[in-house]
Write a structure and sequence with these properties.
The protein is an all-beta fold. The protein has strands at about 20-25, 25-30, 35, 40-45, 50-65, 75-80, 85-90, 100-105, 110-120, 120-135. The strands form two sheets. Strands 1, 2, 3, 5, 8 and 10 form a six-stranded antiparallel sheet that branches. The protein has a four-stranded antiparallel sheet with strand order 4-9-6-7, with no helix packed on it.
Length: about 140
């Protein structure tokens, strides 16, 4: 989806999960919060338009919303047109960063998908995926 404003209408100004939102040449996508799960789940999926996107993919690993010392290790798989481009994973404690980023370029007229999986099933631990960057015609 190319365009600014609220693509979903109603009270959702960020278009969680299904759109690459644009404001001028800036673009962003938010997954919203997802529960930690050992079953892989799609958290972002959208088609790009007649523009290239250059930016950052960030995964914030699952954290307990009532006890932030309780976290899960998670991985995010980034796909373009069904092809696996990269997998980013967070660590925990001394095992590495909790939030991880990857620079990405997405060609015009592409289908983008981000899938996540965690090392445990925790209904009270939530992660998120965020994409921010610029579009170029």
């Amino acid at each position: 989806m190319l365009g600014g404003g609220n693509p979903l209408g109603g009270s959702n100004p960020v278009g969680v999960g299904q759109f690459l939102n644009t404001i001028g040449d800036f673009a962003y996508a938010y997954s919203g919060l997802w529960e930690a799960s050992t079953t892989q789940q799609t958290v972002l999926k959208f088609d790009t338009g007649a523009y290239m996107f250059k930016g950052i993919l960030q995964m914030n690993g699952p954290v307990d919303d009532d006890n932030p010392s309780q976290i899960n290790i998670a991985a995010a798989e980034f796909l373009i047109d069904g092809q696996r481009i990269c997998i980013i994973a967070n660590g925990s404690g001394d095992n590495g960063p909790f939030d991880v980023t990857q620079e990405i370029i997405i060609p015009a007229f592409s289908t983008v998908e981000v899938k996540v999986v965690s090392n445990g099933n925790e209904s009270d631990r939530f992660g998120s995926v965020i994409m921010t960057g610029r579009i170029y015609a």
